[in-house]
Structure formats: structure tokens, C-alpha cells
């Protein structure tokens, strides 16, 4: 059996990756338009986030603190708007490192960033399905 992103993470792990209250707030505010909104916004997010993840990895590899700060801040903000609590926290750490001019030399933080993104992706896909 080929491993897929969805079966790499348990429902519990995916659930921990997302603050569903953020999505519930959107649902409350938008009413019957919430499902359409979530699909549209999550589609845009899933187009842009991989580019930001790559840009963060390139910034780390090049030792570019300014780019690290900018890209991490952008990913943090868009992730937080969709309820990605842990992913946003990792981005905050990277953004702070960029602000301080400290480039992480350990690949673990990039691995953590990628892993948290994958968990959040699964969690948000599950939420989108439940909203239909």
C-alpha cells in the first residue's frame, strides 16, 4: 500500500494541528457563504503555502535573514487566519530568527515546519469535507 499524506497522520494529530474555533468564527460570521469561502480561501492557501515553504528553505540555505523574516511572517499570518496554531508558532520562531539575523543551522526546524504544514493540510481538508 502506498503511503499518502492522509494516512501518515492520525485524526488526532490532524485535529491538534488546527484550531477549529477560528473556522467556527468564520462560519458564524459568513453564515451560508462559509463553505464556499472556506473552499476558496483554502485553495488559495494551498497554492501559495508550498511556494512560501520553499522560499523559507532557500532563505535558510542562503543565510538570508530578511527573506526568512518576510516569508515566515507571510506564512504565519495566512496559516493563523485558517487556524493553523502549531504551524503559525513554528513560523513565528523562524520570523523571530530572521528579525534577529539568526539563521537556523539545524535542518530539524525546516523538517518541523514541513511536518506541521502536512498535518494542517490534512486537518483543513477534513474540515472542508465536513462543511459540505
What is the topology?
Blueprint: H1 5-8, H2 11-16, H3 20-30, H4 34-62, H5 65-81, H6 85-100, H7 107-131
Helix pairs in contact: 3-4, 4-5, 4-7, 5-6, 6-7
Structure description:
Helix content is 82%, strand content 0%. The protein has 132 residues and is mainly alpha-helical. It has a single domain, classed as Four Helix Bundle (Hemerythrin (Met), subunit A).
The fold-level CATH name is: Four Helix Bundle (Hemerythrin (Met), subunit A)
**Largest sheet descriptor:** none
**What's the order of the H and E elements?**
HHHHHHH
Helical coverage, percent range:
over 70%
Distance between the termini: 29 Å
- Taken together, the total number of domains comes to 1
CATH superfamily: HPT domain
Strand content: under 5%
| CATH class (first level) name | Mainly Alpha
Query: What is the helix tally?
Result: 7
* Shape label: elongated
Amino acid at each position: 500500500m502506498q503511503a499518502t499524506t492522509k494516512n501518515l497522520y492520525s485524526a488526532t494529530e490532524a485535529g491538534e494541528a488546527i484550531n477549529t474555533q477560528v473556522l467556527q468564527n468564520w462560519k458564524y460570521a459568513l453564515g451560508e457563504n462559509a463553505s464556499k469561502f472556506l473552499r476558496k480561501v483554502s485553495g488559495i492557501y494551498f497554492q501559495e503555502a508550498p511556494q512560501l515553504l520553499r522560499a523559507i528553505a532557500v532563505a535558510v540555505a542562503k543565510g538570508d535573514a530578511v527573506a526568512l523574516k518576510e516569508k515566515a511572517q507571510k506564512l504565519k499570518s495566512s496559516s493563523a487566519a485558517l487556524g493553523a496554531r502549531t504551524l503559525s508558532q513554528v513560523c513565528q520562531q523562524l520570523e523571530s530568527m530572521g528579525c534577529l539575523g539568526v539563521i537556523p543551522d539545524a535542518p530539524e526546524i525546516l523538517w518541523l515546519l514541513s511536518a506541521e504544514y502536512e498535518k494542517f493540510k490534512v486537518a483543513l481538508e477534513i474540515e472542508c469535507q465536513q462543511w459540505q
